[in-house]
Each structure stands twice: as C-alpha cells, then as structure tokens.
Specification:
Helix content: 40-55%
Structural class: mainly alpha
Largest sheet: none
Number of helices: 2
Strand content: under 5%
Order of helices and strands: HH
Number of strands: 0
Length: 27
C-alpha cells in the first residue's frame, strides 16, 4: 500500500485508522 501525501494527511486526521487498519480510508 502506497500512501500519497494527501492520503497520509487524511490518515493523520483519522487516527483511529492506526488502531483499526481494516477501516483505513486507503487499503
């Protein structure tokens, strides 16, 4: 999985994704 700067920024705002990778906006 490649994280684009935009995706990473989104991931940082959606921290719960860190605890549940399955719910990450980008899979």
């Amino acid at each position: 999985v490649k994280l684009t700067p935009k995706a990473m920024d989104r991931a940082h705002k959606i921290e719960p994704f860190e605890q549940s990778p399955a719910q990450a906006p980008i899979s």
